[in-house]
From TrEMBL:
Protein name: Cell division protein ZapE
Keyword Nucleotide-binding: yes
SUPFAM superfamilies for the chain: P-loop containing nucleoside triphosphate hydrolases
GO biological processes: cell division
Keywords: ATP-binding, Cell cycle, Cell division, Nucleotide-binding
UniProt-listed Gene3D superfamilies: P-loop containing nucleotide triphosphate hydrolases (3.40.50.300)
Length: 331
């Protein structure tokens, strides 16, 4: 097997068109269609959401008919509000696939990173003309980001773009300050009337252990662990990688993980700087989308965020990242 590369040595250069082109559903949703969604009959709201999403494709893409009778109003946006593992992202990806192009699909963080990289005006220009903008895991923990996103979506929908969004409830925070529809509508006041709200109930279909632990590997054992992974791997010191992330715009993190199948991190420690932590969260999202297996020494990856951080305003971001780190460390 080839020796692991080093992410610290990579200087990804990603242009505006490449960044926009990367706004598609992650690989784990390649098979996500309306036909492959299996609603739980014990929770009728799942079947209702599936039916409504299918109806929207027709309502949004077919010309209005009827000369004498006014067609019922169809809002240009839909918001799926529900717990973890009920298929919200599956339905969002299925809707994206069913709509004509051009179209974009990304997490809230990816869109705000796009604005940060290109500037607001250029982002509007790049996304203008999209048939639909899908926003997975819409977040409200940063008022500035929420304001920018609301303004951006308002401009796009005014030019005919349709919107679809899901909540960002993390798996280990169900029932604990859930991101609810009322929060969403309150914070996006300027465009709240553009969205139809649909609640999806149900249990996590994956039955994932939300209290899992990320195993710790000895430094000397990491190369062997990576050698057992089929494909390109990388090995870096944790502190060196955290420092490197400060010099790479989050919109370009996709260039760090492209083609990567495994990542070894030596000397993981508890992060105490909020900026370092948020950049690491953005990288974790990219690693998770690409399903990159993690092997790490030092502090367990599920303990990488300090208690102070977990009690702060970005709590949901960190809890979601922990869940993803646990999953990747157990790959």
């Amino acid at each position: 097997m080839p020796a692991p590369i080093s992410l610290v040595e990579l200087r990804p250069q990603v242009g505006a068109e490449q960044i926009v082109a990367s706004l598609v559903p992650p690989p784990q949703f390649d098979g996500a269609t309306f036909e492959t969604y299996r609603p739980d009959t014990a929770h009728p709201s799942q079947g209702e959401a599936l039916q409504r999403m299918q109806e929207l494709v027709g309502a949004w893409t077919k010309p209005k008919r009827g000369l004498f009778r006014k067609a019922p109003e169809v809002k240009p946006g839909i918001y799926l509000d529900g717990g973890f593992g009920v298929g919200k992202t599956h339905l969002l990806a299925a809707l994206w696939k069913a709509m004509p192009g051009p179209k974009v699909f990304g997490t809230f963080i990816e869109y705000t990173a796009l604005v940060g990289a290109l500037g607001y005006a250029e982002t509007v220009q790049q996304l203008r003309g999209s048939s639909i903008v899908c926003i997975d895991e819409f977040e409200l923990d940063d008022p500035g980001d929420t304001m920018v996103m609301t303004r951006l979506l308002g401009e796009l929908v005014a030019n005919g773009t349709k919107l679809a969004a899901t909540s960002n409830t993390p798996p280990n925070a169900l029932g604990d300050g859930r991101f609810a529809a009322s929060d969403f509508l309150r914070e996006i006041t300027a465009i709240a009337d553009r969205f139809q709200i649909m609640r999806i109930d149900g249990e996590d279909y994956r039955h994932r252990d939300i209290t899992g632990h990320a195993p710790v590997v000895d430094d000397d054992a990491i190369p062997g662990e990576l050698d057992a992974i089929d494909g390109t791997t990388a090995l870096d010191d944790f502190d060196a990688l955290i420092a490197h992330l400060a010099h790479v715009h989050p919109s370009r993190y996709i260039g760090l993980v492209e083609g990567l199948r495994g990542l070894g991190l030596r000397g993981v420690r508890v992060l105490t700087d909020q900026n370092d932590a948020l950049r690491f969260v953005a990288l974790v999202d990219r690693l998770y989308d690409a399903q990159v297996a993690l092997r790490a020494s030092g502090t367990s990856l599920d303990q990488v965020f300090s208690e102070e951080m977990l009690g702060g305003g970005y709590r949901k971001k960190y809890l979601r990242a922990i869940s993803r780190l646990v999953a990747l460390a157990n790959e």
